[in-house]
Amino acid sequence: MAGYGCVVLDPCGSRGAYLRHHKNSEKPCDACLVAMRPIWAATDLKRRRRRVELETPCGTYVAYRRHLRRGEPIDEACRLAVNRAQRVWYHDHRRRVRRGTLKAVVADYLETHGLVEMRELVVLIQYRHPDITHRQVRDAVKGLRNDGMVVSEVDEWGVRYQYVA
User: Fold this and answer.
1) If we measure between CA atoms, which residue out of 51, 150, 78 comes closest to residue 107?
2) What residue ranges in the chain does DSSP mark as E strands?
3) pLDDT tens per residue, range 20-78
4) Cα–Cα distances in Å, from 22 out to 15, 18, 37?
């Protein structure tokens, strides 16, 4: 065994020696690479098992995206799930647009973005709706706060944040 002062170094052909090579930015020797192969194989096997356990079943939007990513043919259950999700999103979105009230627009942005500072909320809304003024947004938030749909908090620096209750 090679030694350096009081520290006893692991001989080449062990995990410790491989890690020492890695730490010293050296190219590992062949003996260390051979010693690491079973460890890497076991780690890969664990990863593969975990990935198989975590896969979502067919018939969901996530499974549909997985089929696309892997280049697999898309089964009927996944296709129906995606069609259903798109139909729900389309009709909900149309319903929100039809409602069209400023309160609905503000509530939708707060649901989407979570905890938002008032200035940031105004910028987000005016980006999509340039005709809406900051006073209209402020009044809509006050109305939602009075209705109990939105909660408002002030942090220690006096910045007011809004979020959906």
Assistant:
1) 150
2) 3-4, 7-8, 116-117, 150-154, 160-164
3) 888 888 898 999 888 888 888 888 777 776 665 567 788 888 889 889 988 999 999 99
4) 11, 6, 15
Residue 119 exposed, middle or buried by CB count within 10 Å (0-12, 13-18, 19+): exposed
Strand partners, 151: 163
Residue 107, SS3? helix
The 3 state secondary structure assigned to 16-36 is: HHHHHHHHCCCCCCHHHHHHH
- When pLDDT is cut at 50, 70 and 90, the band that residue 95 belongs to is low
Residue 52 CA to residue 8 CA, distance in Å, equals: 42
